[in-house]
Structures are given as structure tokens and as C-alpha cells.
Design goal:
heterodimer; A: TIM Barrel; four-stranded parallel sheet; 22 helices; 11% strand; B: 283 residues; alpha/beta; Rossmann fold; 38% helix
């Protein structure tokens, strides 16, 4: 099919869908670095005009990365649900955008078409959407997952407690963990980024969190974010609730992470066999982020946002409890400033939700990005309105191991307060029983003798 | 309506302040409503301000050159293809390559120069450099690049080199004229080392500033530098700063790497950091 538009006396022709998607993408530094952006503002909008008229069926015929050379393309094509696609199969990308925003596209409707949508269709439609549209559509989606509690319910908003320490010091981690719990965080997961991938350290940290969880009967799950092969090697002797892995949207990106689909399948099966979930059996935790494919020199000429959405096809295959786009971590050569980070986060959240994923966002930035806490406040609030499933909770928003700024326990409480959002129901009841929060969701002043404080200074 | 003034609200401290003893993380901050108390907010902002200032700090080329000349070494000023910080931040590829003028400086300098030691301060030494003699001792190329914190290089490069350079001289290594590079990334050392025909390039560079570490210096060592190498080819020593790795420890570690890299003729993943093990057995 010819991708062409005439604007004034200029004919804009795009050789293929891959190029068209790249040229239609709102500007960001990573696509410029890859040499994929439109050459002018006019070309970008011309590309969007052309993209709006592309039939969704075209995406099933024209692979942007060849089927023969990329297992993620094969996954996307082979597992496409024709029946779920049927009701919208006659749409163009532009018609999909208008339908998504219409009253006809209800929460239930969106859940029903999710498996009929491919990442490329979703990436395409998001490129036509304003930030407002990304928020409206995401807000209509509801993706519920569970392990020891229930995440993603409308009106609820969860937090991953991230108690990192530069040397994996167990007491330092425990102190941050207790701080977070006493601030009402930790319902999504208690998740540590270890400073080392050493299996012995990972086992020790998992054991420590698990002891605390059992002692205080905390209805949540834990994760030490090691490589999937490390997690496999320590199962079943270690208390592994969730298996973590960073993933990308091309086979070559995943190779650079040292993973592939069969390894992820093996890890999921192994974690399921441990039978540690009580409320449900979503056992995977994935992290993604725009720019990872370019960073690994594995983007195959595909723009970074489309690569990102293709990573969600990988995530979807393994029914994760949590997916997290670590949006501002990668640096200004991919997302230069607050504006680009905010746009990318809203895209990732909306696209992930449309594909049926339990999306959380690491609202974050590095010190060489043109961003600050005000940008994060803006993004946090926008994501709360959009119905984001969870964010990170880091003491004072300052991660002393990864050296970047994320969101604090206080930030999460702010969002719950201004938008009337509640923690995961099982966790909320625990917070009330512990005297940390009252029935109205207000944080309480705990006494000095609170048992969790003693647990932090073991 | 009462005329009573509203009392200033002083936030209640968290009763687990004692846990701060176990971690430098910002725990037990207390709160006003659910917000972080102002004093903590301002402290955070100041830390971020230091980090931001570090990103935009400039390499003190005049001072650094004077100090290095004082130590008996020739110095040359180079610049990457990134014109300014704005471009540097968005185009890492340009920060990895020298601009044309810098390439010319290195070409004109010829290769390979000899060590300009304290006893032989004949700066320029053009005769031997036009003579293209194969080096009798391993020639090291040393690069000081601003990276993401020129402040780190301005503060820490000279004290570290004051320990390292005498070690190198005693160990029989030659050092090419030392390069000061503005808007440089780690890989720019590959091009410099290649043009200086060095057997190894050592890049001292400002690391990405953290909130508690705006002046952290990193060192990257690459054996047989050529264009197009990736990080697997390098060995790295990081977090050199007060409160991190000391100058002495960093210099010792670096010298060990230089010796081993020269002996085994490799660097990167193949060169394991066993210095600690050796030390334990020899000391």
C-alpha cells in the first residue's frame, strides 16, 4: 500500500509502515538520535494524516520487523485473536482513535478487544492522540491482577516499595522497608534492585522480606529484581514470589538482556509450580522503557515508542502481576526533558492498558535530564487521573543505589488524598489493623512501640 | 471570628527516626499533612542543584594544564564533535568522536612522543616524534574528559595523577602528552589512543551526578584502543570522591590494571579484578 499525502505542493511519501510510524511520532530525542524523526513539523503531521487512513488490517499484512528474523513479530502474528479483532477489523487507525474516545467504547468493550489489538496498531493510534486522549482512554481500561492481594481495581492505587541500598545491606534495606510500610506503601510489591546479581545475596534478601511478611502477615508479594536466570537458579529453595525481568520489543533487544521467550516461559512455569500466590497466580514482573532497543543497537529502524509497545506483547504472553515502564531512567538522549518524559509515560501507560497489561510507571528522571520534581508532580497527577495501577515508593524520592529520582511514599499519599484513591483492598485492611491508616484512608501517627519499628532495628 | 493567630505548624517527627542509623536513604522524614516538611524539601532541592550545576560545569583547562605541566607533562586541549552541552546531552555519538581541529592537533603532534619526565622537560620533543621509532616501553595515553561532571575532574584528577604518574614512571611506562577533552564521553579515548599510537588509553571522566555525589570520578582503561570498541573492552573504576573510593586506593587499583593489561595484552571482561586477592596474599 502507498503511504502518501500531498500538502500544498509537496508530496510526502513514506516507503513503508515502519517509516510512517516513525515520522508520525511526536518529537523525542531518541528518535532524532536514531535518525528516524520527521524532517519538519509539516512532515510529521503529514505522516499522521496518512497514518490515520491506514486500515487496521494492514498491520496484519505488513510486519515492521520481518516475521522470519524476529520471534516477537512471530508472537504478535501467531497469537493475534481474530475473533476479538472482528468487531473493529474494518476500522482505520483514525477510526480506532475516535471509537476509543466514544461512549461506545466501554471498559468491558475495551477488555474484549484487547487481544485483537496488536502492539503496532496501539502504537499507531497513540501517535494520533493528544495527552488528554491518552488519559481518557487509559482511564476507561481496567486490568486486574492478583497474587496475595488484588491490584488494578478502579479507584485503587498501589505502590511498589523500593527500599534499595548501595551495598545491599540487609539492615539498611529493612529500615527503608519499615519506613515505607508505615507510610502505607508496599501493596504492589516490595521490590529490591540488588547492587549485585549474586545468587547468595538475592536469596538472603528474599528470605529477609519473606520473614518480615510472614511475621506481620502482610498481604503483599516480594521480588528481588535479579536476572531471570538467577531467579531460576535459586528456585525452589528460595522464597521467590515474583520473577522479574527487563524486556524489550525486538528479539535482538531481549538477546542483549540475555533472555528470550522460552526462558521466560520456563521461569513462569517454575514460579507457578511454587504455588505461593493465595489470591491469584500472576507471577511475573516486567520492566520496560522507551529507548532500550536503540540503546542496545537493536531497534531495526523502528521508532522507540513502537519498540516499547512491542515489548508489551512479550509481557502479555506471560500474564504478569505488574508491568512497569521506567520512563525517565534512560536519560536525555532518549527523552530529553519533562515534556518528553511526560508524553512518553502517558503513551506507555495507555498502550499497555489497551493491550490488557497491569501498567505502573516509574515516574522518574536522572540528573542530566531537563526535569525536576515539578515535572514529576505533573506526571504523577496526570497518571493518577489516567488510572495508573501503581508507582514506585522510594524514601524521599531519592534512590541511593540507582542514583536517580523517583517518587516518594509521601507522593503516593498525596495522590491518594487528592484523587480519593485507596490501596489494594487486602493491604488497606492490613494497614487499618496495624493502626497505620484509618478506615477513611488517613495516615495515623503510630506509637513509638509499634512492632514494625522494632522489626526495622533487628 | 477569633483574632487568635494560627500557630505555626511544626511537623511531628516520625517515631522511627532511630532507623536512620542504618541507611543513608531519606527515611523518617516526618510530614505536614502528607507532604514532606519544608526543610527536607529544601535539602533535596539543594542536592539536585549541586547535581545540575555539576552537569553544566566546565573543565578548568587552564588550571589543569598548569598543574600537569608543573608535574613535567605536556598537555593538549581537545574537543569532541558535540558543540555544546545541549548537543552533548542529546547526541552521545558526537561526544565519542574528536572534532576536526582536535584530530589535526594529534596528527601534527606525530607519534609516538616520549615520556617527558621531571628530568627531561623538553616539552614538544619534535625530533623524536617525527622519527616514528617503535616505542621501547609501553606508551600510555591519558585523557581527562568532562563527561557529566567536569567538577569531578577539576577536583580529583590531579590528586590521583600525582600518585599514579610516579608509579608509571617507576614501572617503565611512557606517557604521551596528556589530553584535556571538552564535551567528551568515554569512547573518545579510543580515537585519541589510536592517534597517539598508544598501547592503552586511560580516561578519567566525570560520572553522572547523583544527589549525594555531584563530583564522582570514573576511570576507564582500554587496551589497544581503536575506533568502534564497546564497553566490554574496558575496565572501570568508579565512585572516586571523598566518601567514595580514595585517591590512593583508586591509583593502586588502576596501576594494577595497567600492569596486568600490559602483561596479558587484554582489557575488559577478560581482565578480572583480582587485585584484592593478590593484595591479601602479598601483604
Amino acid at each position: 500500500m502507498a503511504y502518501k499525502a500531498t500538502i500544498g505542493n509537496i508530496v510526502y511519501a513514506f516507503p513503508d509502515l515502519r517509516t510512517l510510524l516513525a515520522r508520525a511520532t511526536p518529537y523525542r530525542s531518541g528518535d532524532a538520535l536514531a535518525g528516524l524523526t520527521a524532517a519538519s513539523y509539516e512532515e510529521r503531521i503529514a505522516a499522521q494524516i496518512v497514518l490515520a487512513d491506514v486500515p487496521l488490517k494492514q498491520f496484519l499484512q505488513e510486519a515492521i520487523i520481518p516475521y522470519e528474523t524476529d520471534e516477537i513479530t512471530r508472537l504478535i502474528i501467531d497469537e493475534h485473536a481474530t475473533d476479538a479483532f472482528a468487531p473493529i477489523s474494518h476500522f482505520t487507525v483514525g477510526q480506532l482513535r475516535d471509537w476509543l474516545l466514544s461512549d461506545a467504547a466501554t471498559t468491558l468493550q475495551l477488555q474484549q478487544v484487547a487481544t485483537g489489538l496488536t502492539p503496532e496498531m496501539v502504537a499507531a493510534v497513540s501517535k494520533l492522540m493528544r495527552n488528554q486522549d491518552l488519559i481518557s482512554v487509559a482511564r476507561k481500561c481496567e486490568v486486574i491482577t492478583s497474587f496475595r492481594n488484588t491490584l488494578g481495581l478502579k479507584g485503587h492505587f498501589s505502590v511498589r516499595l523500593q527500599p534499595n541500598h548501595a551495598t545491599d545491606d540487609a539492615r539498611g534495606i529493612a529500615a527503608s522497608m519499615v519506613d515505607g510500610l508505615l507510610y502505607g506503601s508496599g501493596d504492589a510489591v516490595i521490590g529490591i534492585n540488588p547492587a549485585t546479581d549474586s545468587p547468595a545475596v538475592v536469596v538472603q534478601l528474599l528470605q529477609m522480606i519473606d520473614d518480615l511478611r510472614q511475621q506481620y502477615a502482610i498481604p503483599t508479594q516480594s521480588c528481588v529484581l535479579c536476572h531471570v536466570t538467577t531467579a531460576l537458579s535459586i528456585m525452589p529453595q528460595a522464597p521467590v514470589d515474583l520473577v522479574f525481568q527487563s524486556i524489550g520489543g525486538t528479539e535482538a533487544t531481549n538477546s542483549s538482556f540475555g533472555v528470550n521467550l522460552s526462558m521466560l516461559a520456563e521461569a513462569q512455569a517454575a514460579a507457578l509450580s511454587l504455588q505461593r500466590g493465595t489470591v491469584g497466580h500472576n507471577v511475573m514482573y516486567f520492566e520496560t522503557g522507551q529507548g532500550s532497543s536503540l540503546s542496545a543497537n537493536a531497534h531495526a529502524g523502528v521508532d522507540q515508542q513502537t519498540c516499547e509497545v512491542r515489548a508489551y506483547a512479550v509481557a502479555r504472553k506471560f500474564a504478569p502481576l505488574l508491568v512497569n515502564t521506567v520512563v525517565g531512567f534512560i536519560g536525555p538522549e532518549y527523552l530529553y526533558d519533562g515534556k518528553q518524559i511526560i508524553r512518553a509515560a502517558l503513551e506507555d501507560h495507555c498502550c499497555g492498558k489497551l493491550l490488557g497489561l497491569p501498567m505502573g510507571v516509574d515516574v522518574c528522571y536522572t540528573n542530566h535530564a531537563e526535569a525536576d520534581q515539578d515535572d514529576m508532580d505533573n506526571l504523577l497527577t496526570l497518571l493518577g487521573v489516567a488510572g495508573c495501577s501503581y508507582i514506585m515508593g522510594v524514601p524521599g524520592a531519592d534512590d541511593i543505589m540507582l542514583n536517580y529520582q523517583s517518587t516518594s511514599f509521601h507522593d503516593a499519599l498525596y495522590l491518594r488524598q487528592v484523587l480519593g484513591l485507596r490501596p489494594a483492598p487486602e493491604f488497606e485492611q492490613w494497614l487499618v489493623r496495624q493502626g497505620i491508616m484509618n478506615e477513611q484512608g488517613k495516615l495515623q501517627q503510630v506509637p513509638r512501640e509499634h512492632p514494625l519499628i522494632a522489626a526495622g532495628s533487628y | 471570628m477569633s483574632d487568635q493567630p494560627i500557630q505555626p505548624f511544626s511537623h511531628q517527627p516520625d517515631p522511627w527516626v532511630s532507623l536512620r542509623a542504618f541507611t543513608p536513604a531519606r527515611i523518617a522524614l516526618g510530614r505536614t499533612g502528607v507532604a514532606i516538611p519544608l526543610q527536607e524539601v529544601l535539602q533535596f532541592r539543594m542536592a539536585h542543584a549541586h547535581a545540575r550545576d555539576a552537569v553544566y560545569s566546565l573543565l578548568a583547562t587552564t588550571t589543569l594544564a598548569a598543574r600537569l605541566t608543573g608535574l613535567g607533562y605536556a598537555v593538549q586541549d581537545l574537543h569532541s564533535r558535540a558543540a555544546d552541552r545541549h548537543e552533548y546531552l542529546q547526541r552521545p555519538d558526537k561526544g565519542r568522536r574528536l572534532n576536526e581541529a582536535s584530530v589535526q592537533i594529534l596528527r601534527n603532534a606525530g607519534a609516538p612522543p616520549t615520556t617527558i619526565s621531571r628530568t627531561d622537560q623538553a616539552v614538544g620533543n619534535t625530533e623524536s616524534s617525527t622519527n616514528k621509532q617503535p616505542p621501547v616501553s609501553p606508551l600510555l595515553s591519558i585523557v581527562l574528559a568532562d563527561g557529566l561532571s567536569a567538577t569531578a575532574v577539576n577536583h580529583h584528577a590531579i590528586p590521583l595523577l600525582e600518585i599514579l604518574l610516579p608509579q608509571l614512571q617507576a614501572g617503565g611506562f611512557s606517557v604521551a602528552p596528556i589530553n584535556l577533552v571538552q564535551q567528551g564521553r568515554v569512547a573518545i579515548g579510543d580515537e585519541i589512543g589510536m592517534l597517539q599510537e598508544a598501547s592503552m588509553v586511560i580516561v578519567l571522566i566525570g560520572e553522572r551526578p547523583g544527589l549525594s555525589s555531584p563530583d564522582s570520578l570514573g576511570i576507564y582503561l582500554t587496551y589497544r584502543p581503536v575506533l568502534g570498541l564497546t564497553d566490554e573492552a574496558r575496565n572501570c573504576i568508579s565512585n572516586i570522591r571523598p566518601g567514595g573510593l580514595s585517591y590512593q586506593a583508586a591509583a593502586d587499583k588502576l596501576y594494577w590494571f595497567i600492569r596486568e593489561s600490559t602483561r596479558l595484552q587484554i582489557s575488559g571482561v577478560g581482565l578480572k579484578d583480582e587485585e584484592g586477592l593478590l593484595d591479601a596474599s602479598t601483604r
